[in-house]
Amino acid sequence: MPIVPIPDLDDKRYADLVREAVASLAVRAPAWTDHNASDPGITLVELFAWLAEMQLYGLNCLTPDHYRTFLRLVGIR
């Protein structure tokens, strides 16, 4: 068992990210009313959700050597 519990950092999926972003449009951009897939803005939302999912996936691909280096950087032996 590792000394520090390793969290699951990639718990958000593409569909979750898109759903949250589109839901926040009503608050952040109330004049934006076209939320169809054909809207260029929704295409950008989907693109950024895909990029975010790829970065979240990469967070869990760290090796034990990475974790040891990070812990050493913050002063934990």
> Biggest sheet, in brief?
none
> What is the 3D shape?
elongated
Poorly predicted sequence stretches spanning 5 or more consecutive residues: none
Distance between the termini: 16 Å
Approximate helicity band: 55-70%
Structural class of the secondary structure composition? Answer: mainly alpha
List the helices and strands in order.
HHH
Oligomer classification:
single chain
Task: Provide a descriptive summary of the structure in words.
The chain has 77 residues and is mainly α. It is built from three helices and no strands. The protein starts with 13 loop residues before the first helix and ends with a helix.
